[in-house]
Amino acid sequence: MTCIILDDEPHAIDVLKRYVEKTPSLKLNGEFRNPLKALDFLRQEEIDLIFLDVNMPNLTGIQFLKALKRTPLIIFTTAYSSYAAESYEWDAVDYLVKPIVFERFLKAVGKAEDLFNSQPGVKSVASVQPGSDSVISLKSGKQTHRVRLSDIQYVAKQSNYLEVNTPDRKILVRANMSDIFSWLPADQFFRIHKSYVVGLEHIDVIEASQVKIDKTVLPIGASYRREFLQRVES
Predict the structure, then answer these.
(1) Which of 124, 131, 163, 175 is the most exposed place for a label (fewest CB within 10 A)?
(2) What is the DSSP letter of 101?
(3) How far apart are the first and last CA of the chain?
(4) Helix, strand, or coil here: 157?
(5) How far apart are CA 42 and CA 36, in angstroms?
(6) Upstream peptide bond of 120 is cis (omega within 30 degrees of 0)
(7) Does 137 share its domain with 185?
(8) pTM over 0.70, yes/no
(9) Which domain covers residue 171, as residue numbers?
(10) pLDDT digit string, tens, across residues 133-170
(11) Paired strand residues for 6
């Protein structure tokens, strides 16, 4: 699971960072002391889990959650047990009281893993015979769609879902953009925008700020443009 740490205490961040690095199932994507910087980061990137301090100056953890458009899994961290009742109103995974010991941290992460793995999402299946096109399984609601990788033109972020587009269908799956390259090979697909990943072989026209795939025009994000153009021109 991808995660970030938001805490106004440097020592608390150091402890959590050390614990995350010791936990194979977690990948730390950022650490923040300033809630506003964390909000700006989350407007650009999606993560699965936040280790969130409740009692911060200027903006509390609860106020921070109210400012989010999408709420990931939350593990609250604080030196004050009095906030526990309010935290559970936000369906928090767990509530860790400082100083946090590693065993208690692992218990909380285990709960988060159970919730994360129970969510409907994308499941990859093994490639077919060598030399043939790879096929993946995409779970959409109660249906499972088998799709050839080479048929995927682009993937678009739609709120808490991803829309997988092929020439003949659109498949909506519950998954995060941050997880997409765990099931799409990076040599065939490229992220051109915070909301779009394209199949490189399907691109018909490339312009300075957009690409055209069939009849669909997709924007190239400013932060992705240089690397994308280097990739397609190499």
Answers:
(1) 131
(2) P
(3) 32
(4) strand
(5) 10
(6) no
(7) yes
(8) no
(9) 122-233
(10) 688 888 876 678 888 899 999 999 877 678 999 999 99
(11) 32, 52
- Say if residue 127 is in the same domain as residue 112: no
- Tell me: do 131 and 51 sit in the same domain: no
Q: To the nearest 10°, the Cα dihedral for 161, 91, 18, 56?
A: 110
User: Across the chain, where does the E strand assignment appear?
Assistant: 2-6, 27-32, 49-53, 73-78, 94-97, 122-123, 135-140, 143-148, 154-158, 161-165, 170-173, 189-193, 196-199, 205-206, 210-213, 216-219
Strand order in the sheet with 122-123: 122-123, 135-140, 143-148
Q: In the listed set 118, 139, 163, which residue is the last one of a domain according to the structure?
A: 118
Same domain, yes or no, for 55 and 151? no
Distance between CA 227 and CA 48 in Å, rounded? 25
168 vs 94: CA distance, rounded Å: 43
